[in-house]
Known about the structure:
Order of helices and strands: EEEEEEEEEEEHEEEEEEE
Mean pLDDT: 90
Helix content: under 10%
Distance between the termini: 8 Å
Oligomer: single chain
Strand content: 25-35%
Number of helices: 1
Number of domains: 1
Shape: globular
Amino acid sequence: MLAGLGLGLGLGLSGSxxxxxxxxxxxxxxxxxxxxxxxxxxTGPENVPIPAAPALAAxxxxxxxxxxxxxxxxxxxxTLFHIHTHxxxxxxxxxxxxxxxxxxxxxVATQTPQGPFIDSGTxxxxxxxxxxxxxxxxxxxxxxxxxxxxxxxxWGQPLSSSQAGPAHGxxxxxxxxxxxxxxxxxxxxxxxxxxxxxxxxxxxAPETINWASTGL
Length: 216
C-alpha cells in the first residue's frame, strides 16, 4: 500500500526506550564520536528517502516460498498483525540500501513517479520490503515478535556480531537512538521503530524517519 503525502527525516530519538523483551539499551554516548548522517536520498514511493547507495546484498533466489524460521509465504498479504520497522545500514561509515523485494519471490514492480514499488509476486513472506527505502513490512496471520535475524534469513544473508551480509566487522545496532546490547539477530522488529545496523567503523549518527508523514 502506498503511503500518503509528506516526508520526514532527521536525527535523534524515536519511540521510547528499548523494545519490549529486549536487553536494556546503552546511551548513544557510549559509542564515542559519530559521523554526521548523510543527506537523505530522493523520496521513494512510500514517502521515505531511498539511499543513493548500493545494496548491501541482492535478494536471494533461494527464498522461493518455503517456510523460513517458521515464517510462511502466502499468495496474499496478511493483515491480522500489521506493523512497520525502518532499517538503515552502514558499512565502514558508508550507507547501503536494503533492497526492494526481500521476502517477495518472483517480485514484480510497478513504476510510480517516485520510483519502483513491488506490488506483486509469487507469494509474500510475513516480513518483506516493497521499496529500497528500508521499510520492513511485518504482515502476519499471527501476532508475535519477529526479529532482525529472521529478516536476514529471509534475505538469505548471514547476521552475527561480526558479520552482516557480505560485510565483516564489529556489528553495532542502534534502536530508537539507543545502543542494543545483545545478539544482533535478536533485535525485535517493533512498530514504528528506527533501527540502524552498522558494520565496522567509523560509526554514523542514527537516522530516523518521521513516521507520521509516511502514512504507514
